[in-house]
Every structure is written in structure tokens, then in C-alpha cells.
Write a structure and sequence with these properties.
The protein is mainly alpha-helical. The protein has 5 helices and no strands. The chain has helices spanning 7-24, 27-50, 54-75, 82-105, 108-145. Helix 2 (27-50) runs antiparallel to helix 3, helix 2 packs antiparallel against helix 5 and helix 4 runs antiparallel to helix 5 (108-145). It is globular, with a radius of gyration of 19 Å. 14% of the residues are buried.
């Protein structure tokens, strides 16, 4: 009555789930997910390097590079972002170069350096969201009373 799990069908469902969630997610959440994606890909690459799994290391570093280039760097608002956007662009660009060097030289220290650069940004981004939500929660009752 039921057939074995078809990997193509599972992949299609996963793709639909990701596409659907992308339409309902706000920009702040999207950047947070991208930052987490970079950290996750770097962690996977580091583990693969430790296991001498060259294919997984290369694929994971490639994923981190694509997230940085196509996601985080293109999302920067260079016009109204001012110095913050310029600084983030410099950090992302540096991280990209270090990941390419890490991949070419099988250098775990460079991958670890990238993780140490991105982690505080990811944590600060999440804190900023919490602060904004807390400020909105405080402002809502005041608006209702006005």
C-alpha cells in the first residue's frame, strides 16, 4: 500500500517548505538565518576537514561563501546603512577571502577565525531583534491608551 520513501519527493517537499517560509519571514529573520547558515556551514567544513572528508569540506565552504556573497553582502543597504554597512561589507569580504584560503590550504585555523568573526554579528543581530520586540511590547499599551 505504501512505497518506500522517494528521495526526490522528500526533496520536493523540503524545497516547497523553504520557499513557503521565505514568503512569510521578515528581513530580520532572513539575515539571522543567513548568519546561522554561514556558521553551520563552517562548522560542517571544520568537521569534514578533521575527518579528511574533502568533498564535504569543499561543499560546505562553498555553501558558506555563497551565503556570504549572494545573501549577506547583497542584502547590505550601502546607501542608508552608512558606516555599519561598510564595516559589515569589509568583514564579509575578509571572511570570504579567509574561507577560500582555508579551502585551498586545508586550514582549520582560518575557518575557526571566520566563525569567530561571524558569531558576534549573529548574536548581536539576534539581540537587536529581541530589543526591538521588547520596545514594541512596551509601546503597544501606550498606543492603546492614547
Amino acid at each position: 500500500m505504501f512505497s518506500a520513501l522517494n528521495p526526490r519527493a522528500a526533496s520536493a517537499y523540503q524545497r516547497i517548505n523553504v520557499e513557503t517560509s521565505m514568503h512569510t519571514i521578515d528581513q530580520h529573520q532572513l539575515v539571522s538565518l543567513l548568519l546561522d547558515g554561514v556558521l553551520s556551514a563552517v562548522a560542517t567544513a571544520r568537521g569534514a576537514l578533521a575527518r579528511s572528508d574533502v568533498l564535504t569540506k569543499c561543499n560546505s565552504i562553498s555553501k558558506a561563501v555563497r551565503i556570504l556573497e549572494e545573501g549577506l553582502m547583497t542584502a547590505l543597504d550601502r546607501e542608508s546603512g552608512g558606516e555599519v554597512a561598510a564595516n559589515l561589507e569589509a568583514v564579509y569580504d575578509y571572511a570570504l577571502r579567509r574561507l577560500v584560503e582555508a579551502n585551498a590550504g586545508n586550514d582549520d585555523a582560518k575557518m575557526q577565525e571566520v566563525a569567530r568573526l561571524i558569531e558576534p554579528i549573529a548574536l548581536a543581530w539576534k539581540e537587536m531583534k529581541k530589543s526591538t520586540e521588547a520596545a514594541n511590547d512596551v509601546a503597544q499599551p501606550a498606543l492603546a491608551e492614547a
